[in-house]
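Subject: complex prediction, re-run

Hi both,

The earlier run crashed halfway through, so I resubmitted it with identical inputs.
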Amino acid sequence: MVHPLRTHIETVCKLTDEEFEYVLSHFTPLKLKKHRLLVREGDWVKHEYFVLKGCLRSYITDADTGKEFTYQFAAENWWISEREAFLKQTAATTAIECVEDCELLGLSFENREKLGREMWKYEHYVAVKTSLGYVALQKRLQLMIMGSTKERFENFVNQYPDLYSRVPKAFIASFLGVSRETISRLYRK
Amino acid sequence: MVHPLRTHIETVCKLTDEEFEYVLSHFTPLKLKKHRLLVREGDWVKHEYFVLKGCLRSYITDADTGKEFTYQFAAENWWISEREAFLKQTAATTAIECVEDCELLGLSFENREKLGREMWKYEHYVAVKTSLGYVALQKRLQLMIMGSTKERFENFVNQYPDLYSRVPKAFIASFLGVSRETISRLYRK
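This time it finished cleanly. Structure:
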């Protein structure tokens, strides 16, 4: 079986066996149980992670009310990190929690830079995938600005049918910026 | 005076004079008057643009109501394009309008790919700036999900004090997902 990370990179550019082995040698495997935190608020974030198995959510906690807002999910073949803290090497202002038992591959900031410097293909992969991620986020923002609650919900279910059944509805509600009750009502329809 | 595009690239990595001249030779200058459309819905988008002078907005039109929602601004030293159409080479689903008279530098998709292939520094610049753009967009989304109208407004004014005075308030209102009246009320405070 082709390694999922290789499959993901090869959607952008093909690698030789040697190149992929070299890329992979920079990653560190990590297993975490459901409910464990991958990143805590205030952490220095030294890694970004490729998800091999399981599902995680990034969330931000309102300092006044203590209420949590989920702003990102990541399941198999997605990348996740507290990106601002990772890229700017500052303390995390949001947290990442395992929604299921997870198997991850961690890449340190130094190794990411090293791979990008040494292998044009890796830098290109990062540039292309980040650009596509930017577009996806922009579309989500467009839906937040102009879409109805119903449209946002339907879009989520169509885009991530698998995630919808795996993730507690309260997380999806805050992800979509709608109430828990609205989610239940829309789901029944 | 150092060319603004060079200054922008050099926040990521230094270029020699020859390297910058080579980069610049791939761009095409473009001047557009206020209210002119840079991209129309349905267009094939062949370029991305670096803003030398002026201000533009990207907006999406609600098919049912005809109402416009501004989802992005770009002023001096920002990049703008209908990114989805540009990257995926599909037809534009949103439009870009000049809010002021504009001077732009256009880079075609082919030239962007060529520069990235030939110059590791350019590919690295794209990767780093896109990652930072992703983070900025993520922070904006977090504010849309959890921030109050007041917080969103204050954040915008603090982040883009210059833009606030240059751009019609109706565009800012839809950008923040709040009503025109709310903007006026918050501004008076």
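The mean pLDDT of chain B is 93.

- K.
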